[in-house]
Write a structure and sequence with these properties.
Elements (H helix, E strand, L loop, with lengths): L6 H5 L15 E3 L10 H9 L14 H11 L6 E4 L1 H12 L7 E4 L5 H9 L3 E4 L18 E5 L11 H10 L5 E4 L20 E6 L12 E5 L1 H11 L9 H12 L1 H24 L3 E2 L6 E5 L5 H10 L2 E5 L8 E5 L3 H19 L1
Parallel strand pairs: 1-11, 3-4, 3-5, 5-6, 6-7
Antiparallel strand pairs: 2-8, 7-8, 9-10, 10-12, 11-12
Length: 356
């Protein structure tokens, strides 16, 4: 701590991102990155921007990208907001839409950045427990609130809330903003963007980090009623008018245009997830049903911490959360088929050792 810090900084508990270890020959299954490279068209578009134009500022409105997203989802550009990764888009939503007189509601097991944003922006919040099998029960949200936010599929559980339930929730809370954080929606769910035209209180946030293999480019977006989008634009232009650089805009546009590559890699990850779930269950793991590019699993006879350490010793990194209700679980990113097989083979060696 420093005497020069502001009172706010003294009170903050920052988010801790997944480890990015600098180890050779590592199988990295801890941060839900896509195991496949970006679209070749996206990489070519990025390369094409590396020229003398880098001396110029990018388009502050990123109109090309907004148009590409709007075209993809059948929206108008004024229904789209873009930012430097979905984390920045989320931050603007917390600041511009979710700081209200009543507390914000979100699940007790969810994206751990949410309480961090609440601390940063002074947002009062209340967590709503998931059911015993880690599901969101929308009836539990029937209480006074200044907004509702949750990932779908949820993280780190991977469980999906069906679109009909989301619509019911949004309709029941017409006086509150409902934010659906869809970082993982492309791996098995139907986007709530389909509901935007009917519900002016719905904001849907997505990222290109997961299903489009562009975590290193930092591009996220929100879709919603123009009134909600205007709030985000007002916050953005009071913070940073140029959140997306030329390379990010070009690469993101091309990624949305290359639908064939997106579909190919998305389906491959879904297939690999099914293989991984079956293989883990065959080794007596209890796996939470997942529609994301990761699975949450526990073994009834081994601690999550011990399993994570043993895998790490073999050059395989998974995520272990020392949090109530999930401290015995591992969150395992779905890698390539070869990476999944290596993980499974390592567990076959580890489990007899840990069980003694």
């Amino acid at each position: 701590m420093s005497k020069y810090w502001s009172r706010l900084v003294h009170q903050l508990t920052p988010y801790v991102p997944g480890e990015q270890p600098k180890m050779a020959n590592l199988i990295k299954l801890n941060t839900n990155e896509n195991p496949y490279p970006p679209s070749p068209k996206a990489m070519a578009a990025i390369t094409g921007e590396v020229d003398a134009r880098l001396r110029l500022y990018p388009d502050p409105n990123a109109d090309r990208l907004k148009e590409a997203i709007a075209d993809y989802y059948g929206l108008a550009p004024r229904q789209v907001f873009v930012g430097n990764g979905s984390d920045e888009v989320l931050a603007h939503a917390f600041c511009g839409l979710l700081k209200q007189d009543q507390p914000l509601l979100f699940p007790d097991i969810t994206y751990s950045f949410y309480p961090v944003y609440c601390g940063l922006y002074g947002v009062d919040y209340r967590t709503v427990p998931l059911t015993d099998d880690f599901q969101i029960d929308i009836a539990d949200y029937n209480q006074p609130n200044g907004g509702i936010i949750f990932p779908n599929p949820n993280a780190p559980t991977g469980r999906l809330l069906e679109l009909g339930q989301i619509e019911q929730l949004v309709a029941q809370h017409a006086d509150s903003v409902v934010v659906v954080d869809e970082a993982y929606i492309d791996f098995g769910g139907q986007s709530a963007i389909a509901l935007i035209e009917r519900y002016p209180n719905l904001l849907v946030i997505q990222t290109l980090s997961k299903s489009r293999s562009l975590a290193g480019l930092r591009v996220g977006f929100a879709a919603g009623h123009p009134d909600l989008i205007e709030a985000l634009e007002r916050v953005k232009n009071s913070f940073n008018s140029y959140p997306l650089d030329r390379l990010a805009i070009a690469g993101a546009v091309a990624a949305f245009e290359d639908r064939e590559y997106f579909e190919q890699t998305r389906q491959q990850i879904i297939s690999s997830r099914e293989f991984l779930v079956k293989a883990l269950q065959e080794q007596e793991f209890q796996v939470v049903p997942s529609k994301a590019n990761f699975v949450l699993a526990r073994h009834p006879k081994c601690s999550g911490e011990d399993l994570a350490a043993a895998l790490r010793a073999r050059g395989i990194i998974v995520r272990h959360f020392k949090l109530p209700r999930i401290e015995q679980y591992l969150r395992i990113t779905v890698g390539t088929d070869d990476e999944c097989r290596t993980l499974v083979d390592a567990l076959k060696e580890i489990l007899p050792e840990l069980k003694g």
